[in-house]
Amino acid sequence: MEQWLSVGKLVNTHGIRGEVKIVLQTDFPEERFAPNSVLTLLEPESKRKFEVEVVSARLHKNMYVVKFKGWDDINDVEKYKGWELKVSKEDLVPLEEGEYYHHQVIGCTVVTDEGAELGVITEILSPGANDVWVVQPKKGKEVLIPVIDDVVLDVNIASKIVQVHLMEGLI
Predict the structure, then answer these.
(1) Is residue 40 helix, strand or coil?
(2) Where does residue 145 rank: exposed (0-12), middle (13-18), buried (19+ CB within 10 A)?
């Protein structure tokens, strides 16, 4: 079964010439919305999908305004409000060493540098300066781990193990 990653959500039309407003859900908009890029448009409820090709895109008021090939009129695009833009996991952008996609980190087991198992990463929050990993232990309340160099010592995606150093007062 093919797995999909979110690129954005089509939230509205822009003008009358078939352009659409996209709320971004990607760290790589310049690549995803480059001319001739192919994305998959997916309807969330019915899971209907089809490919669209980018003609042009530009940043406008914290959204991307995108023109797709063959969409030349507002009537061509209105019916797609609320649909999601996706790419296959096979189309991932390579990351620098020490960088990871959220889907790679979620599900990893967190252990301390003293060997104690804290739990499994279930969610990633982005409240500001750094991400925060939500770790669910086998019993008890969630633990919040700030993703900073002093705390996160090692991330091994292959073995799904994250090693952390618990600074005083963290838990």
Answers:
(1) strand
(2) buried
Planar angle of CA 101, 104, 110, nearest 5 degrees: 120
Strands (E), 15-151: 19-24, 38-42, 49-60, 63-68, 84-88, 109-112, 117-125, 132-136, 143-146
Q: Is the confidence at residue 1, as pLDDT, over 60?
A: no
Query: What does the alpha-carbon distance between residue 106 and residue 126 come to, in Å, rounded to a whole number?
Result: 14
Place 129 in a pLDDT band, splitting at 50, 70 and 90. confident
> In 10 A of CB 59, how many CB atoms?
12
Stated pTM of the model? 0.62
